[in-house]
Amino acid sequence: MFRNLLNRLFNDDPHPEPLASPDAEVAIAALLVRVARSDDHYEQAERQRIDQILARRRGLTLEEAAERRTAAEMIEAEAPDTVRFTRQVKERIALDDRVDVIGSMWETAYADTERASDEETLIRLVAGLLGVPDRDSALVRQKVLQDMGITEG
């Protein structure tokens, strides 16, 4: 499964086809994994949060979400640099879903309730690459912090 998805994601087709929903979710999950791993501390809280996000986004059970996350972990490990990886995802997911993806990234970054500059920097980079304005990313980040009951300080 994941080898086929890697081939679909990273072929050099100048006009890539949108990914089917399960493939798109695995690709998005791989971005979430990349954020969680960016501070070199990929913890259980982050894995659980990714599972919750995937379950919520597509109505999956936590077991199904964990299976997608496991595939996403393998894809993230094989994926090229973040710029190329994000560009491939951008070309294959709908514009209106990109802000939600950024929100999911912020949620993943704060799953361990710690601020990590590596994670925040990566999210800001990906937001720009996905075409999400800084202001929208900041508003989504504030909402995520509020919903998670985390105060800035």
TrEMBL record:
Residues forming the Co-chaperone DjlA N-terminal domain are 26-142
Tell me which domain of life the UniProt entry assigns to the organism this sequence originates from.
Bacteria
Q: What is the recorded name of this protein?
A: TerB family tellurite resistance protein
Report the source organism. Answer: Paracoccus saliphilus
